[in-house]
Amino acid sequence: MIQGKQRHLFKARRQALIRQLRARRLGGMFLSDPANIFYLTGFRGSAGVAYLGATDAVLWVDPRYTLQAREQAWQVDVFEVKTGLVPFAGRWLNRKGRQRVGFENTHLTCQQFSQLREAAGVKVAWVPLGQALRAMRAIKDEGEIEAIRQACLITSQVYKGVMSQIRPGVSELELTAEIEYRMKRLRAEGPAFETIVASGCRAAMPHARPSSKLLEKGDFVILDLGAILHGYASDMTRTVYLGRPDSRIRRLYAGVQEAQRKAVEAALPGVEARSVDATARRVLARHRLDRYFTHSTGHGVGIEIHEEPRVAKRETARLRQGSVITVEPGIYLEGLGGVRIEDTLVVTAGGPEILTSAPKDEWVID
Fold first, then answer.
1. H helices within 100-171, ranges in order?
2. Structural domains in the chain?
3. What does the pLDDT look like over 139-168, one tens digit per residue?
4. Which of 118, 214, 217, 358 would you call most buried, defined as having the most Cβ atoms within 10 angstroms of its Cβ?
5. Strand (E) positions, the chain?
6. Which helix (H) or strand (E) holds 261?
7. Helix (H) or strand (E) holding 16
């Protein structure tokens, strides 16, 4: 059920969309991306299409989602369609008469667009809007930030709870299961992505899938976890070392920790996203570790785990107040392992607010 504060937020998002449509001389927009439909209506089902305009708000769903749509969607006419959501919506648009309609050309398949265009006929002129809604979603409103904050709180609590179980003899899969179990015990809807627990040489793979490998003394262990709450994601990575680290191991960890801290400090309103990335790389270069950094420094987080803005080498988009991003430099050394430290933060006028509070200094488990 949509509450009063939520209604205000959905209304503001719809109004922002209508302003964009009017500026482009469009009568409305056809929505097919579930994340965008959720953002503008509140409906969280996986099968549905929608049309939003200045005077119409329509959501078409198959029979599995009729009751859910009527319960979740805000100020939308819900129609149950038993066969062919896209063609059905196209015929509805045909009956509305001549108009220019925006569509998500980066989401619809060629087959779906062909069906839509054929059903709508010549009365409808289709205008690709690409990533227009993803750009809107890059700036989070107060409701979104609060949902992400609470998801980050769960993620941090889960990590603190499993720290005592990170020890030699435990398998990566056991730790993964414990992490995801604890998320749901804390009322998360589930993991925001496939949890990563990678130890020893496997920690040199940035996106290693958990295996039956047992943790051993002398292992770096990377734990990358995030929860979903109220439809919004969190993302956090911590790295620990099992045993007594020598000077080289300490240098590796210190280099990544400094790079992550400096990059977080650089995440200010008006700063180009590539500047945050460059800050992390400069610190790693000073530690002679930059050649082991093989991915971008971060990404936006929200309804999806990867959103705009990207925090990467050539990303010229500027961070704005309300941007929620990750900062996650990492290094990966074949045959040894890896170190990655990641926080989710919100960009504010007073500086970055880190939302993931789990400790980063308690990284040695002896």
1. 110-120, 132-137, 142-162
2. 4-137 (3.40.350.10), 142-365 (3.90.230.10)
3. 999 999 999 999 999 999 999 999 999 999
4. 358
5. 28-31, 48-53, 57-61, 77-80, 99-103, 124-128, 190-191, 196-199, 220-225, 227-229, 232-233, 236-242, 298-300, 307-311, 324-327, 330-333, 337-340, 343-346, 353-354, 364-365
6. helix 247-265
7. helix 4-23
